Task: structure prediction
Amino acid sequence: MDQNNLLNDDSSAISSSKKVGLEWTQSSDQEQDSNNRLLEITKTLLPIYGQGWNQCSILSLRRQSISRILYYDELYKKILDVPGVICEFGVQWGVTLAQLIAFRGIYEPYNHSRKIYGFDTFQGFPEIHQKDRGFSSVGDYSVNPEHFDLLEEILTIHESYSPLSHIKKFALVKGDASLTINSWLEENPHAFISMAIFDMDIYKPTRDVLESILPRLVKGSLLVFDELNAETFPGETMAVNEVLGLNNLRLRHNPNQPCRAWAVFGD
Result:
């Protein structure tokens, strides 16, 4: 069965999701209108904020955005007594990476061994597996061609606001994570993972990365999944079930993050 037929068959069950451009959303038309209006207002105000532009930009943050920041704040605090690096698989614009660098600067500013790695193609999904059921397309969630270099600069600036900024404590790994993860493991034989964030959404890279990093997890490592129990991204749930077994995991959930879940490895 081709992907178009799969999409026609399965999307009828999704009452609250729709695809806008290259991304799925559950926002209503009214919410999108409000979001567009906030964007217009922000563009008007940003040039006149002056030196306080960054803090003043909080004025435009929606409840959903604040909730996501609080969610990752909660998760970061759970690994403060777990050594190891942080890996985010599926970076897109790098918003979560920026938050993680800020949380490290707040909670453990002198922990130079808490390196943060971001894995992404920066060109969207490289391929789609049949188990993704036709909801996704090659190239979905891509970013501008120049964004890789821009993100490197942005994260360097964020790191400069915390102690030990002369020690670079983040790295971007460009390419298909199904392939780059094995190179990264070979190049970093010392590294084990305190928190692995899976935000690749689709089946194959999620499965491949999970299988590859298992020997580098410790009891207490945090496994964070961005699209579990998500109708539009069934591949992530299937990959987790095949590699770890859903009935082997004690999954936790934040009530403000509908399709996100996390588990403590070895719990």
User: Anything to note?
Assistant: The longest strand covers residues 217-225. Strands lie at 18-20, 23-25, 85-89, 116-120, 170-174, 193-198, 217-225, 252-253, 261-264. Residues 1-15 have pLDDT under 50 and may be disordered.
